Amino acid sequence: MEHMQIASDNYVAFTFFIGTMAMMAASVFFFFELSNTSPQWRTSILVSGLITFIAAVHYYYMRGYNLENGASPTFFRYVDWLLTVPLMCVEFYLITKKAGATTNLLWKLIFASVVMLVTGYFGETIYSDQSVFWGVVSGLAYFYIVYLVWYGDVAKLATASSPAVAQATKTLGWFVLVGWAIYPLGYIVGTPGGLFGIPASDLGIGGLNMDIIYNIGDAVNKIGFGLVIYTLSRKD
Ligand SMILES: *C/C=C(C)/C=C/C=C(C)/C=C/C1=C(C)CCCC1(C)C
Questions:
Q1: Residues 6 or more apart from 225 whose CB is under 8 A from it?
Q2: Which of 80, 119, 165, 166 has the most Cβ atoms closer than 10 angstroms to its Cβ?
Q3: 31 C-alpha to center of ligand 1: Å?
Q4: Structural domains of the chain, ranges and CATH numbers in brackets
Q5: Cα 51 to averaged position of ligand 1 atoms, centre (Å)
Q6: pLDDT along the chain (236 residues), means of 10
């Protein structure tokens, strides 16, 4: 078997490599901290570790795929997201459960996230000639999640919770609003439709790379989410 090496100017492959390492390190951290965590927060920390662990396994695979083929590992990217984003919804449910979160709310969040991801996948792959349409549908599902977290049931439950839970939900809300907005940028750069029909090159961002943007987004959001939960578990 040929030994593949990352060229020093291959920033895409490099971010896949760093992403793998970061997700592995974060998983080890969350799993080891489990025994130092009070029982009421253990499930939340476990889920944080599962999110980064699932990502670590996918990143290990995507890193090799990208290095060998020089292509975007779109399918496994979306498999990863389909597993990890619903688990992030579970985090919202778990921290607001004491204040009365229902499984109905959990399913609303999960359903919206699946719609957001499946339609995004359509726009990037089989229907890429209609990437604007699918991007907009995906965006609507995304804004519904933002709504639930900032003004809907999640926000209401958070205000009725302890100050630490309210604070953590606010911070996670910023992750969803700003951190998750990194992904549509990657989509605009990586799909022919660009932003509502304006190609990325016309927007002056044609030089950006979709995978680098997605890799940054994943590191910020998956590890960041986990650290917010970790901080909460130490405060409350
Ligand atoms: C760990 C992975 C995370 C948090 C992934 C989040 C992904 C998104 C918020 C993706 C959103 C998209 C849009 C809002 C429109 C264009 C298509 C997507 C799927 C990139």
A1: 48, 51, 88, 91, 172, 175
A2: 80
A3: 26
A4: 11-235 (1.20.1070.10)
A5: 15
A6: 79 97 98 97 98 98 96 98 98 96 98 98 97 98 98 97 97 98 98 93 93 98 98 94
